[in-house]
TrEMBL record:
Protein's name according to its UniProt entry: Folate-dependent protein for Fe/S cluster synthesis/repair in oxidative stress
Protein's GO biological process: iron-sulfur cluster assembly
PANTHER family registered for this protein in UniProt: TRANSFERASE CAF17, MITOCHONDRIAL-RELATED
The organism's place on the tree of life at top rank: Bacteria
Amino acid sequence: MTHSSFLAPLSEELGILHCHGADAEKFLQGQFSNDLTSLPSPGGQWSSYSTAKGRMIANFYLLRDDDGFWLLLSRDLTETVAERLRKFRLMAKVDIEDAGTTHALLALWGAGATEVLGNPGGEDVPATPHAVSVRNGARIVRLPWPEPSFLILASGDDIASWGEQLRARGAHEATGADWRLGSIRAGIAFINAATTEQVIPQELNLEVLGGISFTKGCYPGQEIVARSHYLGRLKNQCYRLRAHAPLAPGRAIFSAAMGEQSIGLVIQAAAVGDGSFEALAVVRAEDAEHSTLGLEAQGQVPLEKLELPYSLPLQKAAEAN
């Protein structure tokens, strides 16, 4: 091994919902922000589930295979989303199950991840973002991170075997919190119980990440999402921030320009080894671009804005002008 790779169980980070049945595609197509009908099997995409007012109940990674659809979402929202989907399925032939008791997730990432995942038998490793391969009882999806990153979904028995194999091939032990920090640096945050129904999909940069279809049929919140897109009414965006103080989902953010009025909130956060914290936060773009941000209205705890691995819509618009 010439490059490092890291392996972490995600049981404390992400829950797993399994949706399957004769009407699963049709039913879920009418609930989520992305277009399931264009998703190959196997394949993956970002998506979200919103209220009628466009506020995200949850966002998630959606994986499709011959067994149906798998939603990978914040663990503390698994039952909330399952109950809401069951409420609206009516006569649709679709089963919605919490698969966290039978299946598990591993994350593998780092410059050497592709080498570690390479199979002596010759099976392909997913080479492009959202590509999925199925082998040895597992579904392997490549995430759109700047560095190679994979999620491995398998049954409890199979996931243990996968962990042993990957560690034997040189993957270093890591934690779910380590993976969360990597996800933050990739510009990808998951709504959780502290931030549910607080922001619309575009404010979490889901449009940039390909998690919204503007050509599919109706779904809850579509009118709000479409209006923000076509009328250019988006005022908030998701930024990567750093502070030398604890950050947690739901914590308010302030700016020097707005004083006591909060202008954003933390969506996801993780500790860094040097004692600082990094976060993805939805913030009013005008303040993020032109004012000083902080955790307190008086500015005693400043927030530093860090780069994302992609450009934001409002930044592109400003550059075009």
